[in-house]
Design goal:
- The complex is a heterodimer of chains A (about 425) and B (about 300).
- Chain A has three domains: about 210 residues, 3-Layer(aba) Sandwich (Rossmann fold); about 80 residues, Elongation Factor Tu (Ef-tu), domain 3 (Beta Barrel), CATH 2.40.30.10; about 100 residues, Translation factors (Elongation Factor Tu (Ef-tu), domain 3), CATH 2.40.30.
- In chain A, about 20% of the residues lie in helices and about 35% in strands.
- Chain A is globular and about 70 Å long.
- With about 300 residues, chain B is an alpha/beta fold.
- Chain B folds into two domains: about 200 residues, 3-Layer(aba) Sandwich (Rossmann fold); about 80 residues, no CATH class.
- Chain B has a six-stranded mixed sheet, covered by helices on one side. In chain B, strands 8-7-9-10 form a four-stranded antiparallel sheet, with no helix packed on it.
- In chain B, helix 1 packs across helix 2 and helix 6 runs antiparallel to helix 7.
- Classes of the chains: A alpha+beta (about 425), B alpha/beta (about 300).
- At the A-B interface, helix 2, helix 3, strand 2, strand 3 and helix 4 of A face helix 1, helix 2, helix 6, helix 7 and helix 8 of B.
């Protein structure tokens, strides 16, 4: 056991796909080749596959664990799978391609560093390719890997690969993604998945696993704009820590240092950071996404929902929000509809002021004359809140630029929003 | 790795602390479901970190089946005492005595299902609105679909097909009166992460996890510890083996593995080389293909 295993990086990626594009095979291969599938799991999946009369071992049965999923052979919900190599630990948010696709893809994408998009080399770009890519762009996933799969069925042809690649690049010009890579693979035979393929010597790039292990994710978090939403206040009231007031939270942007001059929003009071505390002792600096508690030089009334920021770099403080929403509920929003809005550690009431347009997720066409908004729709609209929100644009900060809307009677989460 | 990058363990730690603090901020009467197993020990450790230098602001709740390893109970009492946490221990035996549940009979009888009633009764009695547990998504296929904040209806039941989507780090803990949440701060951890974390944090764990000599019998493909709660079947014989346990449940259903791993480093090495899942030795998961989902829907941990 080498100690290097103790300090790996964490990469979260999302996949989406339909039953026959080889997604399960690809994930199965990554898990299998990284020894993340155990013998008893494999035995169980093999016997379940046989019981269903399948010819092959259906690796989807590994995580399609719910009774209904197993009976109907479908994936209902986002499934999380885990594997690790000596370099990185990976969390896969595996989202179903059909049912509730927007809701599940958006959920999986919201925490991902990377999106894995599979294209069948024989079929080229299909509706789902556009949809998934658009969601990756909308949710600002920093990296996209396009795997052109089933290369074995097109004789490992470079032309076939290049044609799909250039078609995708044309489409991606309309998207907001900085890093897109293309890899020709055969998940079934393992070409370019873990090992380089000797059948595609024309391909100069890296294998999928090598790319996943080495892609630079250190800059994915915002380390510039300091944002510390206060979750709760720690007051031990013990003899030893009688006057201790620690502001507990997780850093949502930037780097905070002991001695920094800070402003507290929304009050606008200023102070200096006295200490940054953890149970392992005080630290000199803290950065995204660390959970710490901060004490200040001055006694200021601070509570959950407030935000500690740098004096000269503050979020926009406003009751008016322009937002792109993914709608998750049968009952769509109307003008004057009211919701509970959660943003950072804040909770306010919000009202719909104006609905600008509904976006066609396949054509990216803006529809301003729509009838109604329903499940899985993407809409741009304006909200007004009862209290000012401490907002950044989602492009600038995925944490302080995101929000959810909650139905006031059913308490369901009805929408996910990205601040423009 | 650059200066402003967390390692995977520190990132998982930070995520879990964030979730534990959300629970404290969003709920009125939270608690930690403490089984005495490594996962709930890690959750308890993370809760200490979340509120330091204050004490953990909620109780440890241990549903006591009466079929415990004696080591687990000693460890539990000692830990609660050390960290100054309140300990609540609803007894399955009480539920049996009150006629709320009936003890299973037959050769594979266990108190595993019975705990559900005791747990749900305790939730009502103490008015818990959020209980944190150490369940992980990599443990079992039904748990792979579990949310961090998992909503339970008035009957304590889980509706896996109608879960709230969880986006970014925003957790919706809204509920109606009588409903509650189960919260799983280490959802994203694997067995390996847990062991590595125990190693780097030097967290105290029950001696059962570390290889030791014990009287055991061979049953259901694992070494079952000899105790007052099990009786020998035909053909079974008591042998003394060096074993350790990868998970801890009731003494009646938790099998051990033969092992020489008597230090944390060796355990991490053994976990890395393991070809069987840790729950492979748990009889409670083997009752049917969807044993875990069935129990979870009813209100299990």
């Amino acid at each position: 056991m080498e100690n290097s295993y103790l300090d790996m990086e964490l990469l979260r990626f999302t996949t989406a796909g339909s039953v026959d594009d080889g997604k399960s095979t690809l994930i199965g291969r990554l898990l299998f080749d990284s020894k993340s599938i155990f013998e008893d799991q494999l035995d169980q999946v093999e016997s379940s596959s046989k019981k269903r009369g399948l010819q092959h071992t259906d690796l989807a049965l590994l995580t399609d664990g719910l009774k209904d999923e197993r009976e109907q052979g479908i994936t209902i919900d986002v499934a999380y799978r885990y594997f690790a190599t000596p370099k990185r630990k990976f969390i896969i948010a595996d989202t179903p391609g059909h049912i509730q696709y927007t809701r599940n893809m958006v959920t999986g994408a919201s925490t991902a560093n990377l999106a894995l998009i599979l294209i069948d080399a024989r079929k080229g770009l299909v509706e789902q390719t556009y949809r998934h890519s658009f969601i990756a762009s909308l949710l600002q996933i920093p990296h996209i890997i396009v795997c052109v799969n089933k290369m074995d069925l097109v004789d490992y042809s470079e032309d076939a690969f290049e044609k799909i690649k250039s078609e995708y690049e044309d489409f991606a010009a309309k998207l907001d993604v900085k890093d897109i890579r293309f890899i020709p693979i055969s998940a079934l035979n393992g070409d370019n998945v873990v090992n380089r393929s000797d059948k595609m010597s024309w391909f100069g790039g890296s294998t999928l696993l090598y790319t996943l292990e080495t892609i630079h994710i250190g800059s994915d978090y915002n380390h510039i704009d300091c944002r510390f939403p206060v979750q709760t206040v720690i007051r031990p009231k013990s003899d030893k820590f009688h006057d201790y007031r620690g502001y507990a939270g997780r850093i949502a942007g930037g780097v905070f240092k002991k001695g920094d001059e800070v402003a507290i929003l929304p009050s606008g009071f200023t102070s200096k950071i006295k200490s940054i505390d953890t149970m392992d002792g005080p630290i000199d600096e803290a950065y995204t996404p660390m959970s710490v508690s901060i004490t200040l030089d001055d006694d200021i009334d601070i509570s959950r929902g407030d935000m500690i920021v740098r004096k000269n770099n503050q979020p926009n403080v406003s009751q008016d929000i322009e937002v792109m929403l993914c709608w998750f509920n049968k009952n769509g929003p109307q003008i004057r509809s009211k919701y509970t809005l959660m943003h950072a550690s804040n909770e306010v009431k919000a009202m719909v002021k104006h609905i600008q347009y509904k976006l066609n997720i396949n054509t990216l066409h803006r529809d301003e004359s729509f009838d109604a908004i329903g499940m899985n729709d993407i809409v741009k609209l304006n909200l007004r809140t009862t209290k000012p929100l401490l907002q950044d644009s989602y492009r600038k900060n995925r944490s302080t630029g995101s929000l959810i809307l909650i139905d006031e009677t059913t308490h369901e989460t009805v929408a996910a929003g990205m601040i423009i | 790795m650059s200066r402003y990058n967390l390692t995977h363990l520190r990132e998982l730690e930070s995520e879990a602390i964030y979730i534990i603090r959300e629970v404290y901020a969003q709920f009125e009467k939270p608690g930690i479901l403490f089984s005495g197993g490594k996962d709930s020990i890690v959750v308890t450790h993370l809760a200490r970190k979340a509120f330091y230098p204050a004490n953990i602001p909620f109780p440890l709740v241990h549903i006591d089946t009466g079929h415990n390893f004696p080591e687990t109970i000693a460890f539990r009492n000692n830990l609660a005492d050390k960290i100054g946490a309140e300990l609540i221990t609803p007894l399955v035996q009480d539920s049996i005595d009150k006629g709320r549940v009936r003890e299973e009979s037959g050769k594979d009888a266990s108190r595993n299902w019975l705990q559900i009633t005791t747990l749900l009764d305790a939730i009502e009695e103490h008015q818990f609105d959020a209980l944190m547990g150490g369940a992980r998504r990599d443990e079992e296929k039904a748990r792979a679909k579990e949310r961090f904040f998992s909503h339970r209806d008035d009957f304590g039941q889980w509706d896996p097909k109608n879960q709230r989507p969880e986006l970014w780090n925003i957790f919706n803990g809204k509920k109606n009166y009588g409903e509650h949440f189960r919260v799983f701060p280490i959802s994203n951890w694997t067995e390996m992460d847990v062991w590595q974390y125990i190693l780097i944090e030097n967290i105290e764990i029950p001696s059962l996890y570390i290889a030791h000599d014990r009287d055991v019998i061979w049953r259901n493909n694992s070494w079952l510890p000899v105790s007052e709660h099990i009786s020998l079947r035909e053909g079974e014989e008591v042998v003394n083996k060096q074993v350790r346990f990868r998970t801890l449940g009731d003494i009646t259903i938790t099998g051990g593995i033969e092992s020489e791993a008597d230090t944390l480093e060796k355990i991490v090495g053994e976990v890395a080389a393991a070809r069987q899942t840790e729950r492979g030795n748990r009889a409670d998961d083997k009752r049917s293909e969807t044993a875990m989902e069935d129990r979870k829907k009813e209100g299990y941990f």
